Structures are given as C-alpha cells and as structure tokens.
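batch job 7 of whatever, protein = PiggyBac transposable element-derived protein 3
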Amino acid sequence: MHTSGRKPCSVFPFEEKISSDMSISSSLLNYLRLIIAYFNLEFIVFHGYLSIDKSMIPYFGHHFAKMYNEGKFIRFGYKIWMLCSSDDYSYYIKKLAEI
C-alpha cells in the first residue's frame, strides 16, 4: 500500500492533463485514444501544404477493433487517418472507428 502521501507515478506523464477533459475507462482503445488526444493537442501549428493519409499501427494482440489486411506489409493492427504536411510531419490522428 502507498502511504507516503504522494501520488504514485503514472505510466504516461500527460495522463492528468487530458483525463480532466475526457472520461477514461480501462479499455485498450480508450487508452490509445488518450495518447492520440495528447499528440493532437501538442502539435497543432499547421504547415502550408497538407494531405490526408491512412496508416496502420501494428498490433498482434487480441482486440475487437484490430483489422486484417491481406497482402500488406503490416497485416494486423489499427487503421488510422492522419493529417500530414509535405515535410512528413503528422498534425492530427484519428482512428478509423471514430470517423
């Protein structure tokens, strides 16, 4: 039991910043949503030329939102949409299930 009066260290240092705005459950997708929301808040200054692209986050565990793409380099994982600049920088990320 933790008795020193201090809060235990969290796995992600930005968890407190976003958890006040979002209700976080113990689901793996919600934890991934927490990480993506942090990056979407931090990197918001846009470049002049933008493009929308889809990408795949590799994942080999068991989860209902995991997708399978036959014949691709990354066959199992989560599909996401990304708003990217012409200099290979990602500005906004959104999971395919949220669209």
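notes: The mean pLDDT is 67.
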